[in-house]
Design brief:
Blueprint lengths: L10 E4 L2 H10 L4 E4 L14 E10 L9 H6 L1 E12 L5 H16 L3 E14 L12 E11 L9
Parallel strand pairs: 1-2, 3-4
Antiparallel strand pairs: 4-6, 5-6
């Protein structure tokens, strides 16, 4: 979808060599690098990207919510971050931690929330216990934030 909408300069990271190879086979990415989010810095300079997305990795046992400031670091001032997480029962504790981290950064003036949208049928459930109201699907949330510009230095 992104490529069809004119986004041509796409970079990607993943902790799995298999996923990187799968992404490479699409021919959509300019660069693909191994990186496990939350274990160190992203392989990119500060304020490098117009937009940063994390889809399908912010969840219990995956990318820790403490990795969010690193995503913000590589985003240009005025740039966008699009993040997603699931709302299934086994991910509710992580979701609460993530939302606390997101709100904390907003409270510090690092970014502004553009959107927080619940999606009822985010992905197919792998068990009935995880299904949202017996639909066979897990609900999720899409968060979009805009990084605040760096405030001018006060003279004094």
């Amino acid at each position: 979808q992104l490529h069809r909408r004119g986004f041509r300069c796409l970079d990607g990271v993943d902790g799995s060599a298999g996923m990187l190879e799968r992404a490479r086979s699409t021919g959509l990415y300019r660069q693909l690098r191994p990186c496990v989010l939350g274990r160190g810095p992203l392989p990119a300079p500060a304020e490098h990207y117009d937009a940063v997305t994390v889809v399908g990795a912010l969840g219990e046992g995956q990318v820790p919510s403490a990795a969010v400031p690193e995503l913000l670091r590589v985003t240009k001032p005025g740039g966008f971050l699009c993040l997603t997480t699931r709302s299934n029962p086994s991910n509710l504790r992580y979701k609460a931690e993530l939302e606390a981290a997101l709100e904390g950064l907003e409270g510090q003036g690092a970014w502004q929330k553009v959107l927080a949208q619940e999606v009822e049928r985010w992905e197919r459930a792998t068990s009935e216990e995880e299904s949202t109201q017996g639909t066979g699907y897990i609900s999720g949330v899409v968060y979009v934030y805009r990084k605040c510009p760096v405030p001018p230095l006060e003279e004094g």
